[in-house]
Amino acid sequence: MKNNLHQISFFKSSTPALPNDYDPTRPGHFQVSRIYLAKNSTTTIERRTFVERICNLYPEAEIIKCYDTPHNRIQLPENDMLALHRAGKSTLVFGELKSAVRFSEEAGNTCPNYWHFSPYGFCPYGCKYCYLAGTQGVKFSPTVKIYVNLPEMLGEIDIITRRLGRPTAFYLGKLQDALALDPLTAYSTVMVPFFAEHPYARMTLLTKSADVDRLLKLEHKGHTILSWSVNPPEVARIFEENVPGVEERVASMLKAASAGYPVRAVMMPIIPIEGWQKIYAEVTRYLIKSVPLQRFTLGGICSYKAARALMESKLGSRNPVSTNIQKGVSPDGRSRYPASLRAEMYNYIVNIARDICPDLKIALCLEEETLWKNCGLENNRGRCNCVL
Prior knowledge:
Elements: E1 34-37, H1 45-55, E2 62-65, H2 81-88, E3 91-95, E4 101-103, E5 115-117, E6 120-121, E7 126-127, H3 136-140, E8 144-147, H4 150-164, E9 168-172, H5 182-185, H6 188-197, E10 201-207, H7 213-216, E11 224-230, H8 233-239, E12 240-241, H9 246-258, E13 263-267, H10 276-290, E14 295-298, H11 305-315, H12 339-356, E15 361-364, H13 369-374
Parallel strand pairs: 1-2, 1-3, 3-8, 5-9, 9-10, 10-11, 11-13, 13-14, 14-15
Antiparallel strand pairs: 4-5, 6-8, 7-12
């Protein structure tokens, strides 16, 4: 079979398409003041109809047509770093991302590397520790992006997995929140059925969103794995601005599990605020007793210099993250807590989780080999959140 999207035979329709029969709704945590229509955002009737449907939901927003400008070259009028970041969180950009399906190339840590894809860029949430804020693309243009070439992405995923010839996970959540914009796009109604029908391609999503209602009605065949990022409410109140509450996320996890989805949790970044032992013990017990987790992944802060500077502009330099970060950077170029503190936090949470659910698969994210051994998790290497 040739690598031609119109010859895909695995699906009920010959070619995936943008959602065209749905009513978009405003996400509860996204206030839009400006909308940019970037290069290739409206080049077909399908794309134009999709974009117009969402724009009509925000009649108060300024719409700026910049059809010669790529999505990652949108220049906002703000100059100050903090003002630019805040403006970007209320700016929506439609565009096309041609390099949307990629294989991660982590080095300097034990990440198994994996395939990931990007129907979105960045997200509307205001997590003050966000590592994405330190990446080059976001630092220049920290806008919330919807990429309109989703069908082409899925076609590329099909080609890759047919070539590999084995079940392979494609991760959505490395460079964005996987579900924060689903009320606007209904992308889940295309993606979940696509992966459900595919013999090889699987999808893992990472989100803080509580908007799962669309997913509950879809046939997924266990081929879509839903994972949530969680932290104690006490930590969320300090570091997670404009984000659904932890209780809302747990309620959504329960809904997803009841609908038969495999459900995972990622507790990251664990932050040693005062009294962290009691706080993390409570949220770990609450989470594991409430939700039938398939997998539980832990991680500390792993930040870039620019992201840390932005965080400190919001919280000051004496915040609980900055005061615990070791001098210098790790082999992968990120800043972390000292290994001794990470081992203490991981072991504490692992022991609590094991007391409740001895057979739960527990793993570490973006960590060193010695930390896996120190936590007795070396046999779980490669069984972390983003992979099957």
